């Protein structure tokens, strides 16, 4: 369970037009699996010559690696897609910078840089960047967010945003929405464009205080900043999920989904209570808070499900740590009915032995939730990093990594594949599944607190189906260990 410790400094906003740096674009898909065409969206390394960011002689940068992708689809045109990802991951936190790829035909991607670190042209003055996220509003404005961090010249962590009004070709309105120094550390920001309030978007994150007053040694409430003018300006960050009543408690993984019928906002997160020395998790559960006035006021938290996740490891060699989506909820809403879904990693179906992909549902606006979760990934197979989306007909799609191809006794490789599960009308009894990736070796990924494909991947509704973005590794390529792929997927 994460405790992410400090790093950040004094807020400032900047409006800046940043021109796209376009990369090469392949003409054909890299592979087709299960009827899904996946196109590579990452090409080359725009930060290959950057020498900023080494924390210590033990810091290792993995050049040519792209990890932790997310995506956004223009609600007006499912072929207009923007993906965002970390570029050149460091072993001890964050990456040289963040980057993006955009397409207007759904297949041919063009890469550019995001200005969230000093490695990027015109970038913010931070040594590294992390946690990319993107969301597109009803007018086509793309909002991208991330985190800038320093490790050597200071101990700052900041929340950053930019916008694009041309489908991701160029980025402008670089803004620091919040910044702190130790003992505070800002972590895991996400950004959501409001589908009904034009020009409105919400950035949410957890703000860890590693030296709060009183008996606690940790406090980690949720914070929010919002824009009402299309990302030109952002509100002062403010607390909206309070954890001070329970000592040594943090939140993580805040994500907002919006009911397009009513405009109601739902913020999902994991709440974790630690022992006083932070060595043990005492209790953890997923929760949701609700706003009916555009994020101005919020309800008290409602428990969604217990967090029963266990350490992510190679099951044949538990000394090999993996790093995936544990403790991070993936929520979605049915745009026709308002039914809410949350996918997450949990060990309920293995007796605490390993994580599976689990799903809970609410049909009353988040007031009550499934008494027991549904198992989505195959029984008896470790599975990781679920993403969820509900397409316009109400069919629910989930994507995830699993280890079904790992043979007993194999401790040299970790065969991994990415799966798509579809639940017709959201009913787990009407589940179908197919593989959409190559089978690849997870152990080729960068080692960053575990073999790292990203703390999350991405999935979004797109036309009559969904669109996924995911990370795969490359074997025998130490200077190009990973690439990111995206494809449009049928759900029926």
UniProtKB/TrEMBL annotation:
| Top EC class for this record | hydrolase
Annotated catalysed reactions:
Hydrolysis of alpha-(2->3)-, alpha-(2->6)-, alpha-(2->8)- glycosidic linkages of terminal sialic acid residues in oligosaccharides, glycoproteins, glycolipids, colominic acid and synthetic substrates
Q: What is its EC number?
A: 3.2.1.18
CDD domains in UniProt: Sialidase_non-viral
Q: Which UniProt keywords apply?
A: Signal
Q: Where is this region: Disordered?
A: 299-329
Gene3D superfamilies, from UniProt?
Answer: 2.120.10.10
Please list which residues make up the signal peptide: 1-29
Pfam entry (one)? BNR
Q: Which family does it belong to?
A: Belongs to the glycosyl hydrolase 33 family.
UniProt protein name: exo-alpha-sialidase
Source organism per entry reads Streptomyces musisoli
Q: The organism's lineage? A: Bacteria, Bacillati, Actinomycetota, Actinomycetes, Kitasatosporales
């Amino acid at each position: 369970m994460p405790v992410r410790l400090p790093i950040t400094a004094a807020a400032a906003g900047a409006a800046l037009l940043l021109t796209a740096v376009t990369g090469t674009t392949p003409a054909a898909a890299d592979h087709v699996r299960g009827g899904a065409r996946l196109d590579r969206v990452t090409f080359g390394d725009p930060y290959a010559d950057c020498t900023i960011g080494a924390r210590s002689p033990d810091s290792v940068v993995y050049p040519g690696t792209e990890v932790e992708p997310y995506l956004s689809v223009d609600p007006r045109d499912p072929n207009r897609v923007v993906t965002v990802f970390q570029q050149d991951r460091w072993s001890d936190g964050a990456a040289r910078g963040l980057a993006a790829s955009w397409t207007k035909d759904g297949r041919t991607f063009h890469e550019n840089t995001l200005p969230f670190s000093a490695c990027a042209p015109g970038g913010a003055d931070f040594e590294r960047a992390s946690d990319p996220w993107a969301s597109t509003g009803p007018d086509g404005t793309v909002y991208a967010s991330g985190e800038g961090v320093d490790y050597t010249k200071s101990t700052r962590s900041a929340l950053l945003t930019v916008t694009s009004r041309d489908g991701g070709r160029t980025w402008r309105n670089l803004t620091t929405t919040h910044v702190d120094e130790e003992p505070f550390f800002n972590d895991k920001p996400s950004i959501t464009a409001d589908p009904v309030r034009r020009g409105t978007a919400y950035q949410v994150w957890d703000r860890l205080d590693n030296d709060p007053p009183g008996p606690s040694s940790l406090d980690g409430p949720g914070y929010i900043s919002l824009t009402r003018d299309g990302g030109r300006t952002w509100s002062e960050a403010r607390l909206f999920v309070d954890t001070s009543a329970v000592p040594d408690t943090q939140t993580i993984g805040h994500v907002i989904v919006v009911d397009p019928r009513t405009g109601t906002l739902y913020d999902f997160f994991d709440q974790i209570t630690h022992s006083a020395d932070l060595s043990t998790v005492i209790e953890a559960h997923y929760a949701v808070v609700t706003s009916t006035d555009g994020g101005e006021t919020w309800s008290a938290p409602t428990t969604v499900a217990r967090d029963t996740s266990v350490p992510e490891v190679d099951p044949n060699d538990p000394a090999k740590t993996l790093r995936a989506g544990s403790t991070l909820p993936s929520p979605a809403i049915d745009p026709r009915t308002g039914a809410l879904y949350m996918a997450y990693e949990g060990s309920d179906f293995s007796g605490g032995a390993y994580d599976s992909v689990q799903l809970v549902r609410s049909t009353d606006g988040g007031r009550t939730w499934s008494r027991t979760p549904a198992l989505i990934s195959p029984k008896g197979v470790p599975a990781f990093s679920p993403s969820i989306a509900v397409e316009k007909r109400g069919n629910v799609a989930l994507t995830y990594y699993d280890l079904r191809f790992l043979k007993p006794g194999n401790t040299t490789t970790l065969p991994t594949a990415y799966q798509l599960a579809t639940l017709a009308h959201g009913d787990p009894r009407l589940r179908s599944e197919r593989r959409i990736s190559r089978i690849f070796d997870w152990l080729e990924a960068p080692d960053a607190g575990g073999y790292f494909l990203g703390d999350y991947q991405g999935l979004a509704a797109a036309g009559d189906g969904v669109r996924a973005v995911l990370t795969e590794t490359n074997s025998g390529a130490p200077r190009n260990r990973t690439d990111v792929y995206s494809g449009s997927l049928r759900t029926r």
